[in-house]
User: What shape does this take?
Amino acid sequence: MDFSRQRSTELRRIKLQFKVTSSPQSGVLTFHISFLVGSKDSSIISSWSTGFNLEASFYVLEDFTVANSAKGIMVTGGSGNLLQNLIIRDINEEGIHLRSFSSDNTIQHCTVFNTGITRPGFGEGIYIGSDYSKWTSPDSPDQSDRNIIRYNQIGPNCAGEGIDLKEGSCCGLVEWNYFDGRGMSNVNSDDSWVDVKGSDYTFQHNVGDWTLKDGWQVRSHMPNGGVSGCRNVFRNNTSNLHSGGYAVYLNSRTQCDNSTVIYSDNTVLNGGELTNGWVTPLETSASF
Assistant: This one.
């Protein structure tokens, strides 16, 4: 572990850049990192750079807050990690970022808000993968796959999407989250709760309130004429839009041959329509 400590302001409020670079030997969740002293609100990591860098696998991060940092938590090349019961707030850019082939991680029971403070449009609450401009080559996508995002509260004041799922990533699960879209920046396409450029994701039992435009935007964004944003499934989500947009907007429907499935049990409230794509009757949906 590499602790680049700047200063300690008090016992429960630690100012440092925390970095973990080694993994346990066995493939189980072995290492726990917790700074719980009374409550998450009193166990705070902050940094001039990234609050917590995890470059390892099979860790549990729980019961602390990352605040007043350039970035919140960065997981780079880490798999099988569990991030839970965390508060990520007052962050200059993104809150939680899984990148560089970080797969099979779970983010749950976390609260993320007030992100993108100094860089609106780059303040995603939770960010999976990398833009193709950051790949090592156009043929080497950042396959940060099979990550689970569930039971989180994301927003308000996320000045980037609540969740951004990048091209090249796939096969994740986003469920039982609550999105508060108040305070969107409308910069760099920040006008929806979730931006979906990955493929084969399932979105179910989520609730969103307030958005500038759409709830969920599904897009194709790939180099060399490639296609992304395909074969995603939306089931039993509630979109309280307060806008004239769509709950699920498909920018990639033609490129993906209408492969995204939007079931009729998705609900739209306060303006807008369910989708600009096809709606699949509920009776063909499996029970979840």
Summary: Residues 1-16 have pLDDT under 50 and may be disordered. The chain has one domain: 2-284.
